[in-house]
Structure formats: C-alpha cells, structure tokens
Write a structure and sequence with these properties.
Layout lengths: L7 E7 L2 E9 L40 E6 L2 E5 L1 H7 L6 E9 L8 E9 L4 H14 L1 E9 L2 E10 L2 E7 L8 H4 L11 H12 L12 H14 L18 H11 L11 H4 L1 H21 L7
Helix pairs in contact: 4-6, 5-8
Length: 301
C-alpha cells in the first residue's frame, strides 16, 4: 500500500503453499482532533510522572518494574526479562488451520481489522487462495504471533486482497446470558408487532459509511475554530423530547409520520474525507491566527 507502512510482514501458509504477505492497519484514529493536558495557570503542557504511592517520591524509569497484585496492597514483582521470556517465538508464518463458513464467527469476537496483501513473489499463490475462498464462500482461521502475542485471525476475501481480523479469545468476551438475565420474557404480537414491522419496512436501506458524519469531531473543530477567531462559542441546540402516553400510541404516531421511501444522502468525496478535512481546518484556523499576530502592521499615512 503506497504511503503506508506495513504493521507486520511474514508468510501466509495453506496446505503446502506459502506466500509472502504484509498486514496494514485498516482503521486509524490519527485524523481525530486530540487535546493535550495543560497547566491552566501557566499555559504549559503537563508531563506525566510516576510517584510512589507510599513515599510520594518520584520513581525514575530505571526503577520501574512489573508487579502482580496477589492480595490487597501486596505485589509479586515480575522482572521485565521474565515477561519477555513468556512471549511465544514467532516464525512469521500465518498458518491457516481451517476453512469455515463466513457466518460461523459471531462478530462479538472481532477485534481489529487489517488489510492482508501479497508481496511481489507471492502474488499468484495469494490470488489463488483469495479466489478459491470467494468461490467457496468460506473464511479462513489462522494463528500466528502478532505484536508479541499469539493471536487467532479470521481471513476473508476483500476487494482485490484479503482482510485479516484478529479475534478476541473466549475468556475476553463476556457472556450474553449474564447481560440479558434480568430482561423479562415478553412476546409482542397483534397491532403493536404489526406497527413495529411497518416502521422497520419504511426505514430499510443499505450501509454506506460515507453518509455517517462524526458529529462530535465536527463540533470539536467548530469549537477550536471559534476560539481561535475570537467568535462566540457554538451553542447546543435544545432537543424537544416527545412525551407519548404509551408505547402503542408512539408506534402509531411513528407509522403515520414516516415516509414510505427515504432519500439517501449523496455520497461525495467531501463526506469520505470529512475527518481529515475538519482536523486540517481547525489547524488552519490556528495557523492563520498566528500569522495575523506576527504580520507587521502598516501605519496609516
């Protein structure tokens, strides 16, 4: 991928076939607006330091180590070298263990997505795997050491390449049974169910990520721009909360007000680059403000 650095390089193995591959981050937060912690009295940036919880003295980096709490306030010290020794050895091979139906993995197990691309020498083998998986409508389960941990990876065809999604382990995913155990057992039927189905049918559409705007990022950019330019800060619009008498009345009202067909927002390049544009606009406002302060003032003749 031009302009991007591979997060991992190694080999993809299926059967006796091996292809050189690389992983690239598929999702990034680098275009989000971020803030630093500032000393409000001086305007200077605040640095993070580590303080001993008992002596309240500064702990230098060379004196810091790892510890596991075995009971309240009692820690078992673990040397960093001992931690390093537990890291599995990596042979840089993403070995496919099984091909499964694409729907077999519940997306609650999905962790992080990466684009999986071939190197020049492995393009034919890579393409054969990609096309074979697409024709067979299967995904692949593979395992390897990624970023110092043994990871399970779900591999699926994606455009011209493959997408590799790291998976959470079973112990990392909380039980849905516990999450829903307090929910009462209700079965909705009759007019209430018909109205709900009608509302759903009038709002059917397709997923297009370019039509969803990050309103929080937009609000932050507007706030930064207003403060730089010395303008009044944007005010939050008041939301009028409806007060329906009961659920059935609210469903009837919704069914009567919703249109049978919704017009989809048009996808534009501006929508796709909205996050980057806002961040650049906010920084641009800061730059213009700084330039205006340093520019020489022309005296009136």
């Amino acid at each position: 991928m031009a302009g991007h650095r591979a997060q991992w390089k190694g080999f993809l193995k299926f059967g006796e076939v091996t292809a050189g591959v690389a992983l690239y981050t598929a999702a990034s937060t680098s275009d989000r607006i971020t803030f630093n912690t500032i000393n409000s009295a001086t305007g200077n940036r605040v640095n993070r330091v580590f303080i001993d919880s008992e002596t309240e003295k500064l702990v230098p980096k060379e004196a810091q180590t790892k510890g596991f709490e075995i009971e309240n306030g009692q820690y078992l010290v673990i040397d960093p070298d001992e931690v390093s020794a537990t890291i599995p050895e990596s042979d840089k091979t993403l070995e496919i263990e099984a091909f499964i139906p694409c729907s077999d993995v519940d997306d609650v197990y999905f962790d992080k997505p990466y684009y999986l691309t071939p190197d020049r020498m492995g393009s034919d083998a890579f393409a054969a795997l990609r096309d074979g998986m697409r024709k067979s409508k299967v995904a692949a389960i593979a395992r390897t050491v990624l970023f110092r941990r043994m990871r399970t990876v779900l591999i699926r065809p994606h455009g011209k390449g493959l997408i590799a999604t790291t998976l959470n382990y079973d112990y990392e995913v909380r039980s849905s049974a516990k999450a829903f155990e307090d929910m009462p057992k209700l079965e909705i039927e009759g007019e209430m169910l018909d109205l709900a189905k009608h509302i759903i049918s009038t709002k059917k559409g397709t997923f297009d990520p370019a039509t969803f705007d990050d309103r929080y990022e937009a609000a932050l950019a507007e706030l930064v721009k207003a403060k730089v330019e010395g303008k009044a800060l944007p005010k939050r619009k008041k939301i009028e909360v409806s007060q329906p008498n009961d659920l059935l009345a609210a469903l009837r009202e919704s069914a009567g007000l919703l249109k049978a067909a919704e017009t989809k927002p048009e996808r534009t390049a501006a929508n796709a680059n909205a996050g980057t544009g806002r961040k650049r606009a906010a920084r641009g406002a800061v730059g213009k403000s700084a330039a205006s302060k340093t520019a020489p003032q022309r005296k009136a003749s």
